[in-house]
Amino acid sequence: GQNIDQPTEMTATEGAIVQINCTYQTSGFNGLFWYQQHAGEAPTFLSYNVLDGLEEKGRFSSFLSRSKGYSYLLLKELQMKDSASYLCAVVDSNYQLIWGAGTKLIIKP
Amino acid sequence: IAGITQAPTSQILAAGRRMTLRCTQDMRHNAMYWYRQDLGLGLRLIHYSNTAGTTGKGEVPDGYSVSRANTDDFPLTLASAVPSQTSVYFCASSDEEQGGSPQYFGPGTRLTVL
């Protein structure tokens, strides 16, 4: 079967750095997405990785290792507005998106 | 309008009733999708459409049907609602049906079936 694992919940302090991990086992791999979802709202696109390495976009970076079936999202200089769920999704061999259950990130002042 | 709109925002429905959730996008995206999101579970694909005139089944299609008569609209119909269909429903679209084009989501419809 296909499986994506993320921690259910994480807590971090305003101004700090947090790393949210995602491991996947899917039938094929054609890319990995990270989305942000605030409570009661729709998911919004953050990043896309298809090759190994780090993609940086402002305070957010995403890393991929295809050989390890592993990705992480790194959030720097945390702000209260970063409190949200972060969803990892993998494009499988049929070009369907397989979604993780998401990691709820709680930011404390 | 800009992006994707969904209607209604929320709905309470008696079991056995028929219901159509509406989705419209103005980005001229080829591909559209319907997901349901339940607490503790990831987004689950119900149906998708790679282009106008074609549809396909996702992970959880039973009890739902879709149509794609044109590029912009992708309605989801529950023929006879059951309580297990209580969920938040998201419509999404993307520029291409394969690979690295991100999906953009509508605001969602919160459906309660009693």
How would you characterize the overall build of this protein?
- The complex is a heterodimer of chains A (109) and B (114).
- By secondary structure, chain A is mainly beta.
- Chain A has no helices and 11 strands.
- Chain A has strands at 3-5, 9-13, 18-25, 32-37, 44-49, 53-57, 60-65, 70-75, 84-91, 97-99, 103-108.
- The mean pLDDT of chain A is 95.
- In chain B, 0% of the residues lie in helices and 45% in strands.
- In chain B, the strands form 2 sheets. In chain B, strands 2, 4, 5, 6, 9, 10 and 11 form a 7-stranded mixed beta sheet that branches. Chain B has a 4-stranded antiparallel beta sheet with strand order 1-3-8-7, with no helix packed on it.
- Chains A and B meet through strand 5, strand 9 and strand 10 of A and strand 10 of B.
Short description:
The complex is a heterodimer of chains A (109) and B (114). In chain A, 0% of the residues lie in helices and 57% in strands.
- Average pLDDT for all residues of chain B: 94
Helix fraction bin of chain A: under 10%
Can you tell me the residue ranges of chain B where pLDDT is under 50 for at least 5 consecutive residues?
Answer: none
Principal-axis shape of chain B: globular
Radius of gyration of chain A, Cα only, in angstroms? 13 Å
Order of helices and strands of chain A: EEEEEEEEEEE
Mean pLDDT of chain A: 95
Topology of this protein?
The complex is a heterodimer of chains A (109) and B (114).
Chain A: E1 3-5, E2 9-13, E3 18-25, E4 32-37, E5 44-49, E6 53-57, E7 60-65, E8 70-75, E9 84-91, E10 97-99, E11 103-108
Parallel strand pairs in A: 2-11
Antiparallel strand pairs in A: 1-3, 3-8, 4-5, 4-9, 6-7, 7-8, 9-10, 9-11
Chain B: E1 4-7, E2 10-13, E3 19-25, E4 31-37, E5 44-49, E6 56-57, E7 64-66, E8 76-78, E9 87-94, E10 104-105, E11 109-113
Parallel strand pairs in B: 2-11
Antiparallel strand pairs in B: 1-3, 3-8, 4-5, 4-9, 5-6, 7-8, 9-10, 9-11
